[in-house]
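ARCHIVE RECORD
Type: protein–small molecule complex
Small molecule: zinc ion
Source of inputs: curated submission
Record status: active
Notes field left blank by submitter.
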Amino acid sequence: MKKREMKPFKETLIALRARLRGDVNTLANAALSNNGNSAGSSSSSVPSHIADLGSDTYEQDNTLLLMSNEGEVLQQIEDALERIEDGVYGTCNECSKVIPKTRLNAIPYTPYCVKCASDLESSGY
Ligand SMILES: [Zn+2]
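STRUCTURE (tokenized, with ligand):
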């Protein structure tokens, strides 16, 4: 994959990482508030009760993500970002084949192609 093609994935990964870490001042947060409540508020003078609502939603979202694989996902995101820096992102760690973009869109931090992921899973990974 070309560096230029990796860029959107890199941004997604950074946003995901920020979300998992619970960073506040990030693009991820901006994206979240766009998705969730508050239709188009410009984030400055937000009344505190609305801010509380927002953080509840945020918390739940975060918990959901964390519950899926906990810190493992965070580690995979770090690894994926490293692979982007190395220019090898989008290649399966196991069989060195190209991971389809549809898969990367769904799980941008996956280090494996579909086949290897299911092989590893069935072998108790
Ligand atoms: Zn593979």
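CURATOR ANNOTATION: The chain is about 65% helix and 0% strand.
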